[in-house]
Amino acid sequence: MRPLLSTTLFLAVSTVSWPNSVIASPRATLGVDPSEFNTQDTITRDVLIIGGGSAGTYAAVRLRQMNQTVLVVEKNNHLGGHVNTYTDPTTGTAVDYGVLYYEDLPLTRNYFSHFGIPLVKVSVLGQGTQRRIDLRTGTPVGAAEGNMLLGLAAYTAQLLRYPTLNTGFNLPEPVPEDLLLPFGEFVKKYKLEGAVDVIALFNQGVGDLLQQLTLYMMKYFSLDVLQGALGGFLQPASHNNSELYGAAQRELANDTLLSSTIEGTHRDEDEEWVYALARTPSGQKLIRARKLIVAIPPKLENLQGLDLDSTERGLFGQFKNTYYYNALAHIPGLAPGTGVVNRANDTLYHLPPLPAVYVINPSRSPNLFAILYGSVDHMTEAEVKGNMTQGVLQLRNAGLGVQAPEFVAYSDHSPFLLTVSADAIRHGFYRDLNALQGHRSTYYMSATFNTHDSAQLWLFIEEILKRHFTPSDNAKDQAGDS
């Protein structure tokens, strides 16, 4: 996600046959007997996709174009993941407060064009009235340190040293120690001070930016993002990012199970099928597919129900994550078009200590403001909203006659950035993680395997699909007709 910048059932025509040689094994891992499911409750596809966010939706659309049959299982009642859109009832204006922008890449334009959605170029930096205020005290904060253009030029030179970072975690061995430095040390080493303030505007949700490893910061603020920051990003002409996912949902139609979760899986390298048990609004469904795509963050708590082996569990168990929250609110007394960047008067580069509000952004509706918030530990919705409210009220000390925010929408995007230690990376963590692609007929396409950036994630998925998925001439015969 870029903060300034993821139940109709298919009815098989033929009765599914469950060979005796495979019944016992799925029964053991799924906790049910597959032979007890009738045709109406059994779904067969080439590919099962867990997660209907940016990654899962893109993979499903592209696989169908490759003549593969798919099924997307999504826990929410809509596709889109980190895309959050609220329609202001007083103006009818659609307001995005999750994902906002996309890099201007051919792939981005092709994807939106597929659905007939026109795009427009938008500038991000230097738009509107933006005040730098310490939201702990309400006191003004001075200009950012250093020369921004010189800092970004020096940062670009560093990015160009690692072209393989553009798609996935393709790291040389040994991994360059520069990439494993805390980003604050990397900044000092290469005199990037002038770039920090801009990087902080885009690298929201990453926890303590100066303590995060340089590898993750360079992945998150990539060359394409830098170019977009300076030259503009793309948005739908409607300025409604949910338009993309509404169109995708209509196209996928019976190839989605919404408001549904996976309760169990059975994956065996020696068997032709992956089996999954899904809980849907219309009851349990048994899914069998030739391949499985996991398009959700691979934290162990997210993967309950998957029959993980020791290799998978050992890798996924190393991930730590940050926490990121967005809200949309009326803020009485704050003039339309006014933005606030939270900065601190007593910290290095004026970066606010977490947990904290990152920014208060005006929206397309003059009545509403987006409030973006980050923390290094989990917080409840009440705690986040309480701290957001305190930050807004501190604006009174800056001479703004505001009242407490009146929240109309809220979203928790946690777990957000998934990271591992420098030592783990030195010892081949990402080499081993990449080796999971295809392991037990399973493929991983979430942001964790590339970056929290829709366009970059789609590029990564393209590479995985080209490498591991081929068109199936008899796909529809295998799964029946919808």
TrEMBL record:
* InterPro entries reported for this sequence: FAD/NAD-bd_sf
Q: Does the keyword Transport apply?
A: no
Give yes or no: UniProt keyword Signal.
yes
Task: Extract the signal peptide range.
Answer: 1-24
Keywords in UniProt for this one?
Signal
Q: Which SUPFAM superfamilies match?
A: Nucleotide-binding domain
**What Pfam families does the record tag this protein with?**
NAD_binding_8
What name is this protein filed under? Amine oxidase, flavin-containing superfamily
Q: Which organism is it from?
A: Aspergillus leporis
